[in-house]
Write a structure and sequence with these properties.
The chain has about 240 residues and is of the alpha/beta class. The protein has 2 domains: about 160 residues, P-loop containing nucleotide triphosphate hydrolases (Rossmann fold, 3-Layer(aba) Sandwich); about 70 residues, no CATH class. The chain has a 6-stranded mixed beta sheet with strand order 6-7-8-3-9-10, with helices on both faces. The radius of gyration is 17 Å and the shape is globular. The two termini are about 35 Å apart.
């Protein structure tokens, strides 16, 4: 289980996150919701160590990770599919996927992990030798997700997976995330601006506004919440 408590973080002297707390059980999909600039990506960056939090706690199965270097947090199994995918566009699909196997265990299991990913994304198997930059946006997102899976995540963070993609591709990605939670026990953090899609996939969610968690609940509770309806679902 991942438990984040009272996370405070920002850029320079500007504080963005104020006492952000949330938890994600094993096998659970949790949505982090909020509008542009609310602090969702900053939350993810503080959890993964890309941004050093000013204070707070990030516990993964009882191990304190807050303040540790991002490499140590990656080794502990918190793996992110970054917003904008960040593939090595000149490298082939295979080479990009191989880079996901950074730990000794992941390297040993690379062949099995590749087959596992190709079952989810059969298109990638046909494209192993193609330069990643020449793939469609949807295919690139599949590579980014597969690369994260090859790292054998215990916590998988998806930051805005729907950005610029066709609805059917988004559904495919969200189905994989849901399946990883249910069948592999992975904890999934889904950062999404498409609140409807996020809550249809997630078990629970947290709403962040101005760097603070202002609401949390099950997906059904949030979908029925008047503030969520007005501010995020346009109902
Ligand atoms: P979006 O959905 O648009 O990605 P978000 O909820 O992920 O938004 P963040 O990217 O976390 O929001 O940004 C929160 C605040 O932090 C914003 O006011 C943003 O301008 C600021 N911010 C983000 N990155 C930096 C940075 N590198 N330096 C200074 N301020 C930053």
């Amino acid at each position: 289980m991942l438990e984040v408590r009272n996370l405070n973080a920002g850029y320079g002297h500007v504080q963005i996150l104020r006492d952000v707390s949330f938890k994600v059980d094993d096998g659970e999909v949790v949505a982090i919701l909020g509008s542009n600039g609310a602090g969702k990506t900053t939350t993810v960056r503080a959890v993964t160590g890309m941004l050093r939090p000013k204070s707070g706690s990030v516990m993964l199965n009882g191990e304190e990770l807050c303040g540790k270097p991002s490499r140590a947090i990656l080794d502990a199994g918190i793996i992110q599919v970054p917003e904008g995918r960040q593939l090595f566009t000149e490298m082939t699909v295979y080479e990009n996927l191989e880079l996901g196997a950074f730990s000794i265990t992941a390297k040993k299991k690379l062949a099995d992990s590749l087959e596992f990913c190709y079952r989810y994304f059969p298109k990638l198997k046909e494209r192993t030798e193609q330069a990643a930059g020449t793939l469609s946006g949807g295919e690139q997102q599949m590579v980014a997700v597969a690369r994260a899976l090859i790292g054998l995540p215990r916590v998988l963070i998806l930051d805005e997976p729907s950005l610029g993609l066709a609805p059917n591709i988004v559904d495919e990605i969200l189905t994989v995330a849901h399946d990883m939670a249910v069948n592999q026990g992975v904890s999934i953090i889904l950062v999404e601006q498409d609140v409807n899609k996020a809550l249809n996939t997630a078990n629970r969610g947290y709403v962040i506004e101005n760097g603070q968690v202002v609401l949390s609940g099950t997906s059904a509770e949030l979908q029925g919440n008047e503030h969520v309806k007005r501010a995020y679902l346009g109902i």
